Amino acid sequence: MQQAIPYKAWTLPINHHAGDLKPVARFAGSAKGAVRDAVSENAVIVLARHGCCMSHVVKRLLNGHGVNPSVFEFEEEEENDVVKELAMIGAGNERQMQFPAVYIGGRMFGGLDEVMATHISGELIPVLKQAGALWL
Questions:
Q1: pLDDT (tens digit, 9 = 90+) per residue, 83-125?
Q2: What does the mean pLDDT of the chain come to?
Q3: 115 lies in which domain range?
Q4: pLDDT computed for residue 27 by the predictor
Q5: Which 8-state DSSP code applies to residue 111?
Q6: Among 73, 46, 70, 42, CA closest to 58
Q7: Does residue 136 lie within any of the structural domains?
Q8: Quick check: helix, strand or coil at residue 26?
Q9: CATH code of 36's domain
Q10: Can you give the pLDDT at residue 1?
Q11: How many domains does the chain have?
Q12: At the N or C end, where does the chain have fewer CB atoms within 10 A?
C-alpha cells in the first residue's frame, strides 16, 4: 500500500477524536487567515463540519489511495465565516460551496460527488500525483 509523506506539519490547535489517528484542526473564529493558511500549506485538505459522515467517506477514500489528507473541521455556526474567508482568497465560490470541500494543490477540487466521480473514472490518482500528495 502506498503512503504519502505529509506536505507540512499542522500547527493549529488539534483535537483527537475517538478512533481517529490523525489530528484534526479546528476552526476558531479568532484565527483570521487560518482557512487560507490551511488551504495553501497542504497538498490535500478536507474542509468539513465537525462530525460530518460525508467527510468521513472522503477521508477513507483518500486514505485508501495512500493520501493522508489534512482535515479542517468547524462547527455549523462557523460555516459562514469559513465560506467568507474562502471567497476572500478566491479559493471557493460562495454560492456553490458545499461541504465537505476538498482542496488539492491549493485549489478547490470539489465535494464528495466530484471526488467519487474522478475516483471511479480513474482520474483521481493522476491529480493527486500532480499535487504532490502521492509519490508513486
A1: 888 777 665 554 567 889 999 988 889 899 999 999 999 999 9
A2: 76
A3: 14-131
A4: 52
A5: S
A6: 46
A7: no
A8: strand
A9: 3.40.30.10
A10: 55
A11: 1
A12: N
